[in-house]
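Recall that a protein's primary structure is simply its ordered list of amino acids. Everything else, from secondary elements to tertiary packing, is in principle encoded there. The following example makes that idea concrete.
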Amino acid sequence: MKSSILFKVLVFCVFCVFFIENAAGQVIYKEYYDAKKYEHLVLYDDSTFFYSKINKYSGEYRAIGNWFISNNILILDSFDKKEQIIVFEQNKDSSKHSIIKPQAYKYGFNLLFLGICLKKNEMDSVIIENLEKNNSIIADNISSFYIYDFLTGYKYPEIQLNSNKKTTYIVEIKLNRFFDNEKWLIKGKKIRPRKEDGELSNYKLKELN
């Protein structure tokens, strides 16, 4: 009970800090929130938005960008669409194996709920869960891989590998979510968002008066 209250206080503080730092001079057009999901969307008069969702296990997801409405559809488009996963290669002549080493791009990002799918070909793949524990993975004869969040269903872009080289791949994983003209449904004073896997959620964000 005490930990739940502390978490809710932390959520409130995070929202307050963001507005102090980023919302000065902006006029709110509409604001939506779901207290159970800790999900928050603010639409500003200048057609920009702020989005935040907090997961007690993996941390806070944020996004800012532009918004517009067409036929009761809210369309969100992030400013920052840089790669959500970045791979660096470290070639070592003495390497006996190819190694994949997942790392957090953002401090405090817990890899416990992330998994990796290693693909030799379209028909042959291996899944490994808990990258917090499995943080050095042998990837010999692997043609590609992708990281996924098995709490949310979100799948990071698939990475192609050169299976003929013995290479150490340092994989930096970003936490922040981004929107690429993503469409949410407007239902009166509520909005039905999409989940991280692109599917419509089974809940709605309520407009704050």
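The helical segments are 2-22. The chain has a mean pLDDT of 80.
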